[in-house]
């Protein structure tokens, strides 16, 4: 037995022994990741046959990792019919891994990376709410459970790495990937990032229930010019360190193993070749010892796009020297790196370092000793009853009640009368799932209409339905049916919004009859998702016009938004009786919404991103600088709905907060306590939020910053004391020299239910 195959030796000894035996070609091969779904074809019996091209690449040692082997969507052209079931997928990855181990010279196992932003992007997996909704729960413990479940489903099929969580901070929600993020606040994103890393990796990488967390996109990707995907980022280093880098730092501290670079440049330097970001900050300052992967084809952009490298050899050398260890689904390392090494443009020492990092992780994963998985277990744990219920609970806690005029909600089963469910998102399964979603079988996704049908049971004959219009096109041919349907009802539930659904061949709906049609002529509903950026935040198509015509009937009007970014529609804000923001609530969203509409669940979601009144206000975010400037001629700078906002079916009262001690030194902690009472008649969750204002500082500071939150459940009349601990990290600022220090002075502490309202107390820091 060669030493690297001996499990009794340390990982360091095994890595060094293996590296010493590798040829240059084999080393380069470890840095290459290919499209996994292209490595095989599916047979009629559900088994797979590996392609001859893939087999030859394995024999030549030209591959170290596969990307998205089980990914199914229109891009991969993998469908429900051509894709693999959970058990078949596990067996297929076993077959691929077995061939690699048995037919490559050194038998180095592959690392399978999969997309798992809100569930494994494979046939049969549980589809959870998108991260923006999961963040809106303000419940990191619940989100950690969700990440644990995603890891279990992914690892059961052989996937060992996920390309999530997305830690980009969003201040311009025209950006199509807003749905994949946690919103606009670095502190909240850091807490959720920590929960994600622990949930995905927490039981140890060699556990059958964990996968590698890959933090992306490093860094500033959500701060792009004009909200356009991969556009330049105009940001100073101080702001980068005090805002966009914060969640990444917290996730590294939690033990994240992998980081993915962003497509964008910052002040003229592409992130994929930035030695400052990838080495100085990530490795030297933060002590990160995992591996760094590019985003798909990002290295190619150094030559064709950024034009900072004249040749492929120069681009690979720049990236390798900066700290890139693995190229996602690209060809640059495979095509140019060996030549760059032979020409002396790149250094073999940098190559060896990258290979060491990748081999170390493969040993940590246990792939050399236990490379295969159990297909029967995959069939058992994927989309289990427990995971389905968890998906519903995340949706329940993340859906936000924005407006509730005169207690329009909850509906009362005994007195509501007939209900018209209308709108393009009332019964479109894929429209409520978000981007990065696999094909779904009929009946798996519970829409709003279906959720209400199942909720009402025998009384579902009180439900009426009409689609009204589509998301994007301007056809009004469904208005007549929608208005006639609404006339028959006492309450109208109007389900509007957007879609991040790729073209899954779902067909369309006849707007005049509400019947499903199967044809491919319909324009896609997609107005959000990766690469789908917008110039405004209004509802697309004729949705607003539909809403206005139905409002004119004088019925109780409840608007539900199902979407991936904030909607700016002041007319609806003013005229609807109730407004619910559901983001993309996942496969159980219809059940959760029905429960909220009828009061079985008291809504407890809170906004993690400000909702502007008009796109011209952008950027709108709660933690703006005091020096943000004056109002516009047409309107002020206040959003329609502020960060942290969300209503409940009950009311909560806060006593004055108490800080102890009131005076501390820069290296001490302080406790802030507040009593919260449920003063209403319904049990419910409250999200207590603590905001900090540094009244005077050596550099300009935000008006306020979130520095603590707790979600507590209170029965009617119940009082709980909530205590926050403020540490030097909470009080620190980033200086113009990029140091993090606590300066003496007074800090105003606000505790309340959102970023605008709250009781105030003062904490003093003295030398």
From TrEMBL:
Catalytic reaction(s) noted: Hydrolysis of terminal, non-reducing beta-D-glucosyl residues with release of beta-D-glucose
Record has Nuclease as a keyword: no
Family that this chain belongs to: Belongs to the glycosyl hydrolase 3 family.
Boundaries of every Fibronectin type III-like domain copy: 686-755
Please state what the protein is called.
beta-glucosidase
Q: Which UniProt keywords apply?
A: Glycosidase, Hydrolase, Signal
* Tagged with keyword Metal-binding: no
Q: Which domain of life is it from?
A: Bacteria
PANTHER family annotated for this entry?
LYSOSOMAL BETA GLUCOSIDASE, PERIPLASMIC BETA-GLUCOSIDASE-RELATED
User: Which Enzyme Commission numbers does its entry carry?
Assistant: 3.2.1.21
Recorded GO MF terms: hydrolase activity
């Amino acid at each position: 037995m060669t030493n690297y195959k001996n499990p009794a030796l340390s990982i360091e000894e095994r890595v060094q022994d293996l590296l010493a035996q590798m040829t240059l070609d084999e080393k380069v091969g470890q840095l290459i990741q290919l499209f996994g779904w292209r490595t095989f074809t599916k047979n009629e019996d559900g088994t797979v046959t590996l392609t001859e091209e893939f087999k030859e690449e394995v024999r030549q040692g030209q591959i170290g990792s596969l990307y998205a082997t089980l990914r199914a969507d229109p891009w991969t052209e993998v469908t429900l019919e051509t894709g693999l079931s959970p058990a078949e997928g596990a067996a297929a990855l076993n077959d691929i891994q077995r061939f690699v181990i048995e037919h490559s010279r050194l038998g180095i196992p592959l690392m399978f990376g999969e997309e798992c932003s809100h569930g494994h992007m494979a046939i049969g997996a549980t589809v959870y709410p998108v991260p923006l909704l999961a963040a809106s729960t303000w419940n990191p413990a619940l989100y950690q459970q969700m990440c644990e479940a995603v890891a279990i489903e992914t690892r059961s099929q052989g996937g060992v790495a996920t390309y999530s969580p997305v830690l980009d901070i969003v201040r311009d929600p025209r950006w199509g990937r807003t749905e994949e993020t946690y919103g606009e606040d670095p502190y909240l994103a850091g807490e959720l990032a920590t929960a994600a890393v622990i949930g995905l990796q927490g039981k140890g990488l060699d556990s059958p229930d964990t996968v590698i967390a890959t933090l992306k996109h490093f860094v500033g990707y959500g701060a792009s010019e004009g909200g356009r995907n991969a556009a330049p980022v105009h940001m100073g280093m101080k702001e980068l360190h005090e805002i966009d880098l914060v969640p990444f730092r917290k996730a590294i501290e939690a033990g994240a193993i992998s980081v993915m670079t962003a497509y964008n440049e910052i002040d003229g330097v592409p992130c994929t070749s930035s030695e400052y970001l990838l080495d100085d900050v990530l490795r030297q300052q933060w002590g990160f010892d995992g591996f760094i992967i590019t985003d798909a084809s990002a290295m190619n952009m150094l030559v064709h796009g950024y034009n900072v490298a004249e040749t492929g050899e120069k681009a690979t050398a720049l990236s390798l020297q900066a700290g890139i260890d693995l190229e996602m689904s690209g060809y640059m390392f495979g095509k140019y790196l060996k030549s760059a090494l032979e020409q002396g443009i790149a250094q073999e020492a940098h190559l060896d370092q990258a290979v060491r990092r990748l081999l170390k992780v493969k040993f940590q994963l246990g792939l050399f000793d236990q490379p295969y998985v159990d297909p029967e277990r995959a069939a058992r744990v994927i989309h289990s009853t427990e995971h389905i219920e968890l998906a519903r609970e995340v949706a329940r806690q993340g859906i936000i009640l924005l407006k509730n005029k005169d207690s329009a909600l909850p509906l009362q089963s005994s007195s509501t009368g007939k209900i018209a469910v209308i709108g393009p998102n009332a019964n479109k399964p894929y429209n409520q799932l978000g981007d990065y979603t696999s094909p779904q079988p009929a009946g798996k996704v519970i829409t709003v209409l279906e959720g209400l049908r199942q909720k009402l049971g025998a009384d579902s004959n009180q439900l009426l339905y009409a689609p009204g219009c589509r998301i994007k096109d301007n056809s009004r041919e469904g208005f007549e049916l929608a208005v006639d349907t609404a006339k028959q009802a006492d309450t109208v539930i109007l389900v509007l919004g957007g879609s991040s659904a790729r073209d899954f061949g779902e067909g369309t709906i006849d707007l005049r009859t509400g019947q499903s049609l199967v044809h491919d002529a319909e324009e896609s509903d997609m107005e959000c998702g990766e690469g789908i950026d917008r110039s405004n935040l209004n509802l697309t198509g004729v949705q607003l016009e539909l809403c206005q015509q139905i409002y004119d009937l004088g019925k109780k009007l409840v608007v539900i938004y199902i979407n991936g970014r904030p909607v700016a529609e002041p007319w609806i804000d003013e005229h609807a009786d109730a407004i619910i923001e559901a983001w993309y609530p996942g496969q159980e969203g219809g059940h959760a919404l029905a429960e909220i509409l009828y009061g079985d669940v008291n809504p407890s979601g809170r906004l993690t991103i400000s909702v502007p009144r008009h796109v011209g206000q952008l950027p709108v975010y709660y933690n703006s600088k005091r020096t943000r400037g004056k109002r516009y001629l047409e309107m002020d700078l206040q959003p329609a709905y502020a960060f942290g906002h969300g209503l409940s079916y009950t009311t909560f009262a806060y006593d004055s907060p108490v800080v102890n001690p009131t005076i501390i030194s820069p290296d001490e902690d302080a406790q802030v306590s507040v009593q919260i009472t449920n003063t209403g008649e319904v049990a419910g969750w409250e999200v207590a939020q603590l905001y900090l204002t540094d009244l005077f500082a050596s550099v300009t500071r935000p008006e306020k910053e979130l520095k603590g939150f707790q979600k507590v459940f209170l029965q009617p009349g119940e009082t709980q004391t909530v205590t926050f601990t403020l540490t030097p990290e909470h009080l620190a600022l980033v200086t113009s020299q990029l140091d993090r220090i606590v300066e003496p002075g007074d800090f105003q502490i606000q505790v309340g239910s959102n970023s605008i309202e709250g009781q105030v107390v003062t904490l003093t820091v003295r030398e």
